[in-house]
Every structure is written in structure tokens, then in C-alpha cells.
Write a structure and sequence with these properties.
The chain has 196 residues and is α/β, with parallel strands linked by helices. The protein has a single domain, classed as Rossmann fold, CATH 3.40.50.300. Helix content is 28%, strand content 25%. The strands form 2 sheets. Strands 1, 2, 5, 6, 7, 8 and 9 form a 7-stranded mixed β-sheet that branches. A hairpin with a 7-residue loop joins strand 1 and strand 2. The longest helix has 24 residues. The chain binds guanosine-5'-diphosphate and magnesium ion. Guanosine-5'-diphosphate (GDP) binds next to helix 1. The site of magnesium ion (MG) has 3 residues, from helix 1.
């Protein structure tokens, strides 16, 4: 994506596509809904017995719905940057959609729940393999054990240039910090590639 449009020559407005990934129940739909300045597009379906054995509800027992296609929202940062947020469906059985939804994205946030850290391995691998800049945001659920960013970095075997941050997916200010960290990571990654 990456379209630039302006009303006047001085005002360069840039829109970029960002992905929100992570395991089932890690808070992707919540994050997009918390931050979006447009009514978020959701494709939630009520969890039914058909998903028993497929969707692991351990640790997210209160979860009543699941995203079956994508979440979509938009946030403007500063005067000139809009981020279009595409939440990828978390379950690996929907991973066939990740390539389609990732097309043209500049970077990604991988949301992690420390009680189910393994659920974000697939997303981490996906972005590492495609060399798409990403950050890991640990969604601090009430009652979940607290680990610092370094412990999560080691557990996920992340490269040193992948930022790890803590967040609350329900909180606008916290989500904004996550997106700013991602934009900085994307800039740093571009600066590194232009040097090589
Ligand atoms: N306590 C707490 N609950 C959260 C947080 N983020 C999401 N939830 C809840 O966790 C459940 C799963 O979140 P959801 O956004 O649907 O996860 P998704 O499967 O990644 O889209 C929902 O019931 C949310 O209300 C958070 O930061 N703290
Ligand atoms: Mg969802």
C-alpha cells in the first residue's frame, strides 16, 4: 500500500498498512477496536461446539467469539501518517489468509499472552521468514504472570533488533505506544537495509 495524497503541496499525507498478529485470544480484536478512529470492521463469529478441539480456550475461558477473517481499523498518528490496521486471524487453520492480508504491509505487531506464549510462534516465524519488520507486544492480562521483556525475548529466541514491549490491548494510550514502537522499528530496519 503506501499511498500518499495531499490537499496542498505542503501537506504530504501517508497511509500505511500494518498487521496485528498473534495467537487465538491474545487480544488482536480488542487492540484494533480500542485504537481505531473509524468503527472497526470485525468478522467475529460466536464460538460453537464446532471449534471444540480446535480453539484452545485454556486461559481465555471468557472468550465468546472468534475472528474468522480479519479485523480492520484505522489510526492517524501526528499530522501526516495514517495506519491501516489489519488483524490476522490467529488460528493456524486460517493461515492460508495471511499471505493475502499481508500483501503490501510495512510491518507487524505480534501480540503475545505469556500464559500461551507458544501460540505466537507461528506469527513470529512467519514475519522472520518474510523479513517483515515486527515487534512483540506482551498483552498484560489481569492475573497473568509478569515476565519482563528480556525473558520473553529469550523464550521466543528473538533477534536483538526485534523490540519487545508490554501493553494493555484495551488501553488507547498503551496501544498508541505499541504502534509508535513499530513505526520506529520499521524506520530502523529501513535505515539498516539502506546501509547494506
Ligand atoms: N484483562 C484483559 N483482557 C483482555 C485484554 N485484551 C483482550 N482481553 C480479553 O481477552 C479476550 C480475547 O480477546 P480478543 O481481542 O478477542 O482476542 P483475539 O482472538 O486475539 O482477537 C476477550 O474476552 C477480551 O475482552 C487485556 O489487555 N486485558
Ligand atoms: Mg479476534
Amino acid at each position: 500500500m503506501g499511498s500518499a495524497h495531499s490537499d496542498s503541496p505542503a501537506a504530504l499525507f501517508i497511509a500505511q498498512k500494518i498487521l496485528i498478529a498473534g495467537g487465538f485470544g491474545s487480544g488482536k480484536t480488542t487492540l484494533v477496536g480500542a485504537i481505531s478512529e473509524v468503527r472497526p470492521l470485525r468478522t467475529e463469529e460466536v464460538l460453537t461446539t464446532a471449534s471444540i478441539g480446535l480453539d484452545d480456550l485454556a486461559g481465555v475461558a471468557s472468550k465468546k467469539t472468534t475472528t474468522v477473517a480479519l479485523d480492520f481499523g484505522r489510526i492517524t498518528l501526528g499530522q501526516s501518517l495514517s495506519l491501516y490496521l489489519f488483524g490476522l486471524p490467529g488460528q493456524e487453520r486460517f493461515s492460508f489468509m495471511w499471505d493475502e492480508l499481508s500483501y503490501g504491509a510495512l510491518g507487524a505487531v505480534v501480540l503475545a499472552d505469556v500464559r500461551r506464549l507458544g501460540d505466537c510462534f507461528a506469527s513470529v516465524n512467519y514475519f522472520e521468514t518474510r523479513r517483515l519488520p515486527f515487534i512483540v507486544a506482551i498483552n498484560c492480562f489481569d492475573g497473568a504472570p509478569r515476565y519482563d521483556a528480556q525473558e520473553v525475548r529469550v523464550a521466543l529466541d528473538l533477534a536483538p533488533d526485534v523490540p519487545v514491549t508490554l501493553c494493555d490491548a484495551r488501553d488507547v494510550a498503551s496501544v498508541k505506544q505499541v504502534l509508535i514502537a513499530l513505526v520506529q522499528a520499521i524506520s530502523a530496519s529501513r535505515a539498516r537495509s539502506s546501509r547494506t
